[in-house]
Amino acid sequence: MYGRRQLLAGAAASVAGIPLATILGDAALARAAASLLERQTLTLTSGRTVDAYLGLPRATPAPAVLLVHEWWGLNDQIKAVARELTNEGFVALAVDLMGGKTATHRNDAKRLMGRVGRAETLELSRAWLRWLKAHPAVNGKLATIGWCFGGGWALSAATVEPVDATVVYYGRVNHPTSELRRLKGPVMGHFATHDIWINRDMVTLFELGMLKAGKRSISHWYEAGHAFANPTDSRFDNKHAALAWQRSLDFLRREFS
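and the corresponding structure tokens:
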């Protein structure tokens, strides 16, 4: 136990005060930040055991944020974002939709993404959100956030279990109005003008669907490409990533208050 405490203290010291983008862009720093989270497990009704990684802020009880990873899987980068959310005063839980598998090449990521089943993923999302809500460190307030592949799933999770807010980074928002009606809280979306996948047409239809459903959405557009908030991607835009992150934090604090 002493060795574990020493290791965590060293990891915390190595990332203290370093900007998030710097941590995410450096594999060693991201690994150090990720090591500060604690692994959690749940068993679904199918009998499958699923993992997530939990970070707690200094002061609890606090609102909680469930994070959903990109198609690369739950890597150190997303865990590092979870750690950053704890620094901002939130309980953070980074869920794993891919059974511990991660990818570094596009074809491998595509194969992993193709194995993710809708029904089981929605069950997983509901289970983890209920687990979070019941956690003694959580004050009952919940949000979801996701990037790309995870952005769409963060929105889907909010349609099966009530949350107070959702943040989508360039994720699929082509949900039918019947699903959007089940949302409890508003949705903030961060979208890129040069994104050929998550484009204006998709987002406009989403905004119209939210209006029909009587729900609130906030869309921010950036002169950037898909994955502009990922420092390991060639399309990374530090200025826009920082602005989107600050907007996300402000949005969460406002909806949690």
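(Above: one complete record from the training split.) The longest strand covers residues 138-147.
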